[in-house]
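I had to read the description of the data format several times before I understood it. For illustration, here is how one protein appears when written out as sequence plus structure tokens:
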Amino acid sequence: MAKNFVQPGHVVTVPAPAAVSSGDLVTVGVLTGVAQFDAGSGDPVEIALEGVHEVAKTSAQAWTVGAAVYATAAGLATTAATTGNVLIGVALEVAANPSATGVVRLNGAAPAAAEA
């Protein structure tokens, strides 16, 4: 293994941008993951960057399998590729309109914030 290897990176520690609960989407810059435990604003929190997670979504959206999923500034998952939203992965299950949650396969890290 390379001498400069730090960690696998499936789960990383970041400062919580606000108070978060376990299972919340947490975005720091263009890095978004799922909080592994509750944390206060500024406290270290581990976020999963990969895997399949059920997350809170924009209720008034219907999702199809394979749709691109983004994180909003409010911490909700959405299929809207608007400025400021961060690409986080793809929908793995159909989600009805309305519905509170959706199932997402996280992509590890966003290449960049979405363009309008």
User: Anything to note?
Assistant: The mean pLDDT is 93. The beta strands are 11-15, 25-28, 31-35, 44-48, 50-56, 68-71, 77-78, 86-91, 101-107. The chain has one domain: 11-107. The CA atoms of residues 71 and 77 lie 5 Å apart.
